[in-house]
Write a structure and sequence with these properties.
With 190 residues, the protein is mainly α. It has nine helices and no strands. The longest helix is centred in the middle third of the chain and has 27 residues, at 112-138.
């Protein structure tokens, strides 16, 4: 049996509160109450509500980067790599839509220093996609004139899921990830 630490309970409670109410409307009292703790307990583990948001953002971005890096390394075939990257990135966003919604749409609430740190993960994700597209163009199997713009657009397919996707809806995360992967291949293949 895994014991959840008090710090993790606060992070999980922050995810729920931020996803439901938004960062600005959430109070540390809301977070503590959801975690079954006193409001003072928040400050034992985090110096501010923004610090909790930053923790959630870092964890979410690290996980998304890990997903896309693993997919990029899964094959040397450029088309299969692109398919895997878009599928896995979209599926991660569907499976983690609450966290994804927070890290994508509450980014502006981070301090400038925290935004800068999170932005390094965003740039790494974009670079991984750009490198895969560039490799496919170099091998003559992908047709992409604007690599940065195309990479951004393909990643946006997954990112946009967090805006509207709800588990149990008319399409599963796997179905949407497959659709996105198929679209990506059709949009870029020669």
């Amino acid at each position: 049996m895994t014991t959840i630490t008090a710090r993790q309970r606060l992070i999980d409670a922050a995810v729920e509160a931020f996803a439901e109410k938004g960062f600005t409307a959430t109070t540390t009292r809301d977070i503590a109450s959801r975690a079954g703790m006193s409001p003072a307990a928040v400050y034992v583990h985090h110096d501010s509500k923004e610090s909790l948001l930053f923790t959630v953002s870092l964890q979410g971005h690290r996980a998304a980067l890990d997903v896309i890096d693993r997919a990029a390394e899964s094959t040397t075939d450029p088309v299969d790599r692109l398919r895997a990257m878009v599928y896995d990135f979209s599926l991660w966003h569907a499976d983690n839509s609450r966290v994804g919604r927070i890290v994508q749409y509450e980014y502006h609430a981070l301090t400038p220093a925290h935004r800068a740190e999170v932005a390094t993960f965003r740039r790494s994700i974009e670079k991984t996609m750009q490198d895969a597209l560039t490799d496919g163009v170099g091998q003559g199997v992908l047709d992409v004139d604007d690599v940065p713009g195309t990479a951004f657009s393909l990643l946006s397919l997954g990112v946009d899921l967090v805006r509207w996707f709800e588990p149990g809806g008319s399409r599963s995360g796997q179905e949407l990830a497959s659709l996105h992967a198929d679209l990506a291949v059709r949009m870029t293949s020669r």
